[in-house]
Here is the input.
Amino acid sequence: MSDAPDPRTIPFSDAAGAETTLAEIAGDGPALVVNVASKCGLTPQYAQLEELQRAYGDRGLTVVGFPCNQFMGQEPGSMEEILDYCATTWGVSFPIADKIRVNGSHAAPLYRALKKTKDHAGLAGPVAWNFEKFLVLPSGEVERFRPQTTPDDPAVVSAIEAALPR
Here is the structure.
């Protein structure tokens, strides 16, 4: 990603509509960026994402959820409804950003940059579905995990652990 902008510095809106960046939210630690949806078969991954935040947050990991309604309308609610659902149903303590588009001509700039990252099969391109994961390292490098790879998968956990200070 040497010719691409550092994804940590690309602005986006938080849940309140204020502009921020991954660098501001995650500081010097890695950020696990995930496009989330409340009415998806993969929605139980919220619990695993929260477990990662609780297990590694003190060591510098920040999970950041980006609600997206692009996949079969599975995130139809307002930001208030989304935040309430995440807190009451899954106990989410990690930051939830403003609702975005991840694919197409109106994709958020952060996701335009992230989608250039190849997954472990060597494929870049569009986000496949809800709960695709991008681990943004403090260096600006990115590791990509497809939606079916759960947050507690050993590959995700080992990548997170490798990115954290010892």
